[in-house]
Amino acid sequence: MLQVKNLTITHRGDDRELLSDFSMVLGGGDKAALIGEEGNGKSTLLKLLYDETLVDDYVEYTGEIIRNGARIGYLAQELTKEERALGIYEFCAKSPAFYDVTPKELAAIAARLRLSSDFFYGEGAVERLSGGEKVKLQLGRILMEQPDMLFLDEPSNDIDLETLAWLEKFIREARVPVLFISHDETLLERTANKIIHIEQIRRKTKSRYTVAAMGYKDYVNRRASSLEHQEQVARKERSDYEKQQERFRQIQQKVEHQQNAISRQDPHGGRLLKKKMHAVKSLERRFDKEYETMTELPETEDAIYIRFGEEHTIPNGKRVLDFSLPVLRAGERVLAEQIHLSVIGPEHICIVGKNGMGKTTLLRQIAETMQERRDVHVFYMPQNYEDALPMKQTPVDYLAERGDKEECSRIRTYLGSMKYTADEMGHAIRELSGGQKAKLLLLKISMEGCDVLLLDEPTRNFSPLSNPVIRSMLRDFGGAIISVSHDRKYISEVAETVYELTAEGLVKKENVNW
Predict the structure, then answer these.
(1) Which among 147, 158, 309, 442 is least surrounded, fewest beta carbons within 10 Å?
(2) Is residue 29, in this structure, part of any structural domain at all?
(3) What pLDDT does residue 305 have?
(4) 134-182 residue pLDDT tens
(5) pTM of the predicted model as reported, rounded to 2 decimal places
(6) Residue 177 to residue 172: CA distance in whole angstroms
């Protein structure tokens, strides 16, 4: 069992509290999901709970973390450059537990992960594995150590639909407590029985958290209902207070008028008015106390606000794309053959497929052929944002065309609507979180009036609370969208046509139930 008592985490760089007086218990059959908006410190908290040395260089903390001698298995969000360069066997051998596991036990772990029995003895480089294989390799090494609990940082990133279904089953059936971060709402709905929600309110100047022993869907619904009720109560109290204040002002004005008008020849009347004024002052003090105890209007870390205008449209009959590729390769390896894709009008298309099939490679080649077009305004959002963003520039510099004061002021307003703080607007883009970089690309799309979007995993870095906004925005987009995604809610809500990339080309999927 893990206990956390009165934990406060402060970022050294800007002295911002990421978490204040946080307490929780993880034990028993807990499958606890850690959620919150981008850049709120979820990964930092997970690292701190696992090993303080992982975050010593950029945060400081107070409070207690009581692990009770538990062995914790930690899956990082990304492998290091050094780990990716290792062979599979070398990667496993980095754990002393690898040599204590019998071949029979190793085969059992491989079977549980749906891997071949000799997978962990492979000589191939880790970096050549698919996203799903990398996740399973890390989990395999963790399971060799027989952990008492699991910490998983974005295990659903970069894995295909088949592996996502496997991951859901793995988390549900885990015999130890699991604390995990994920942006995949479907996975959250199907696995979590406890929600830990971290928020940054008042323009990221105040932290707040909620621990709720319930599933994700129940938490979202109850939170929305509670906030709505709180707002109704708060607004009624304020309305009643204003009415009280109006009546009070009328009484006060009447007494003051009588005081000014009374004759000095009537001392008895003066004493009565003095008592009245004393009563008025007493009433005023009572109203002030009532105001201080009034129900607060709910403060939430709202989802981002963005929309596309009428310029983001494609005529219904316009041929946007007529793409043919005899062979899709990755280096010398043939991934698929006879690929054909036709897009007419404002179609919203999504390409799915197993890890390693070449979906990202295909989308990149489509982007290269479309960049030269002059009859459409194309925007390509790659999976790796460094391929599209100037990492040394600030968000304002990146979005500005002229750089004059008026334009920069307008851009800051736009960035504010995307929940950037003033400090973040002045940071180099490389210092921003993945979600903040994704917001920047979406804002660029909005400002440039693009009518064809090529999107590689567009929702992967947004929080589960922001993703409904992103899906709604893209669903209503009046132009064409050609995307790659494993996000099941994105596929069902945004994509009008779904193709699976196979070795034989693109195959249209009908009546898909994710």
Answers:
(1) 309
(2) yes
(3) 58
(4) 889 999 999 999 999 999 999 988 788 888 889 999 999 999 999 999 9
(5) 0.77
(6) 10
Residue at 299 is within a domain: no
Q: Are residues 280 and 332 in the same domain?
A: no
Tokens of 224: 């929305």
- Note whether 58 and 181 are same-domain residues: yes
> Average pLDDT, stretch 92-111?
91
Range of weakest confidence among 66-80, 359-373, 429-443? 429-443
- Nearest partner of 10 among 50, 63, 53, judged by Cα: 63
Contact 303, 469 (CB under 8 A): yes
- CATH number, domain containing residue 460: 3.40.50.300
Query: What is the rounded average pLDDT of the residues 403-427?
Result: 86
| Domain termination residue (choose one: 223, 250, 282) | 223
Across the range 372-388, mean pLDDT stands at 89
| Whether residue 165 is found in the same domain as residue 43 | yes
- Of the residues 178, 205, 223, the one at which a domain ends: 223
**If pLDDT is split at 50, 70 and 90, which confidence band does 269 have?**
low
Q: What is the extent of the structural domain holding 179?
A: 2-223
3-class state of residue 323 by DSSP: strand
Res 263: pLDDT = 56
Asked whether residue 326 falls in the same domain as residue 409, the answer is yes
The predicted model gives 348-353 an average pLDDT of 95
Q: What is the DSSP string of 71-115?
A: -EEEE-SS--HHHHHSBHHHHHHTSGGGGTS-HHHHHHHHHHTT-
State CA 268 to chain mean position distance: 71
Residue found under tokens 């109560």: 233
How many domains is the chain partitioned into structurally?
A: 3
Same domain, 234 and 364: no
CB 372 within 8 A of CB 408: no
- Burial of residue 84 (number of CB atoms within 10 Å: 0-12, 13-18, 19+): middle
> What residues contact residue 308 under an 8 Å CB cut-off, 6+ apart?
445, 446, 473, 476, 477, 478, 479
Task: Please give the Cα distance from 5 to 25 (Å, whole number).
Answer: 9
Residue among 401, 434, 395 at smallest CA distance from 417: 395
Q: Which of 440, 432, 211, 411 is nearest to 304 (CA)?
A: 440
What does the longest C-alpha to C-alpha distance in the chain come to? 111
Mean pLDDT, rounded, for 302-310: 63
